[in-house]
Structures are given as structure tokens and as C-alpha cells.
Amino acid sequence: MTKRMRAAWMLADSVDGVEGGEAAREDLRQLAKHFGGARDGDVLSELVGRFLDERKSSNASGFRQWMEACVHEHFQVDANAGYVDLWSEKAVARAIESWSSQREHLEMKPGFMRGIGRTEEKFRRRAKKALKTDLDDDWHRCRRWAKYLYFEYLTLAELADEEVSKPIKRLRVFASELGKRNDLANLKSVIQAERKGSEFSATLKEMKSWVAECDAAYEKSTKDFIVRKLSEKS
Predict the structure, then answer these.
(1) Burial letters for 54-69: b for 16+ Cβ neighbours within 10 Å, e otherwise?
(2) CA pair distance 59, 180, nearest whole angstrom
(3) Residue 200 — φ and ψ, nearest 5°?
(4) CA distance 35 to 88
């Protein structure tokens, strides 16, 4: 949710007369920070559960509990992470109110295409780098800007009361697959940090191979998408 709203404000900032974007984006950044650790912890716990279900590993209960503790420590997830407190409720309300108050300025404007053009260029730069280095951090940055770009196009379609085109729908699928690869990369980082000297070292080794198999299912399609995207005229 926060990334979609931040993308909408990024797009709105390209239009003269729109106010409140900087404050709204800061609220949304803080919200993402507040809920991000809890989200990562939940997703990785689900991945651990999938691995155990598929591999029928022995001592599954003990490994699951130990692994969840490792995940929480690795991502510094505290007891309050993800808790919907009064501040987070107010931050969401402010962001929605700010967007609603500026809605009259957000009819189709020439500035929108300049805004999307800037985001497209940032995405293409990060996609090109990720394809070259094949590093997890670069894929993560590529995914983030792919989502911003998709959400900006989605905002544009909603303002114009139009359907999202097929190429933009494919961009959404690409960003989703990169998201799955990012979750697997996060799990891999936990495995690498905890593997040495652990009583579960054999299970962690098996899980590392499982992560590689899962990632391979998305690797070709994501790289093929970028190759096609970069071959297009910007």
C-alpha cells in the first residue's frame, strides 16, 4: 500500500499546483519502515514452512522455531513491529486526506508523462545494472523502481478512467516475480549468517539448495523481461 501511494505522489509532484507531496511521502516512508520488518519476518516464516512441508524434514518443529528466531534477529524485528498504533493510523489518514485534497489538480496533465519518463529512466538504469552484476541488492533496487513505475501507470489509468494496458500488466508480473526472488534472497542471507556451527547445519544446507531451485523458477523470466525492455526505445 505505501509503495503505491508513494508512487502516486511522485507522479503528482510533476504537476504544478500540487501541494503536500513531500510531507505525505515522509509519512509513507516511516510507515514502510514500521511495517517492513514484520512483513519480511512473516514472508520468510511462510517460506520456511513451505520448505519443511515439501522436504518432510526431521525435527521440523524445532527447526521452525529456531529459524523464526534467527529471522527476527537478522531483520531486527521487535515486538512492536507491524503493530497498528495511533501514530500509524494517523499517518495513513494524513496521506489519504492530502491526496484527496489535491485530487482536483490531478486531471490528466502534460507533467504526468514527464514524471513517468523520469521513473522509467531510473528503472531502466537499475535494470541494466542488475542484469550486468546479478547481485541481490541490485535486483532489489530494480524491483523497487519497477513497482514505482507500475503504480505510476496504474494511477495514470485510474485518473483517465482507462484499463491498464497489457505491457503494464506484464510489468506488474515482472515486479511480483522479482519480489519473490527478493524474499528468497533474504532467506538465503539468513541461512548464510546462521549456517556455521549450527546444530541444524545439514538442514540449512538442504534449504540453501531449495532456495536456489525456487529462484531458478523466476530467474529466466525476469532476465528475459529486462532484455526485452532494454531493447525498447526509452
Answers:
(1) eeebeebeebbebbbe
(2) 27
(3) -105, 25
(4) 9
Has residue 84 got a pLDDT over 60? no
In tens, the pLDDT along 116-157 reads: 888 999 999 999 999 999 999 999 999 999 998 998 888 888
Please count the other Cβ atoms lying within 10 Å of the Cβ belonging to residue 127. Answer: 26
Phi first, then psi: give them for residue 114, nearest 5 degrees: -65, -40
- Spatial contact of 140 and 182, defined as CB atoms under 8 Å apart: yes
At what angle are helices 86-101 and 2-12 packed, to 10 degrees? 30
Please answer whether residues 154 and 103 qualify as being in contact, where contact means their C-beta atoms are separated by less than 8 angstroms. no
For residue 228, count other CB atoms closer than 10 A to its CB: 12
Element (H, E) at 105: none
Sequence ranges of the domains in the chain: 2-231
Residues 6+ apart with CB under 8 A from 234: 120, 121, 124
DSSP letter (8 states) at residue 165? P
- pLDDT, position 58: 63
Residues 6+ apart with CB under 8 A from 30: 91
Residue 98 pLDDT grade (very low, low, confident, very high; cuts 50, 70, 90) = low
Quick check: pTM over 0.70? yes
Q: What is the mean pLDDT of residues 80-86?
A: 52
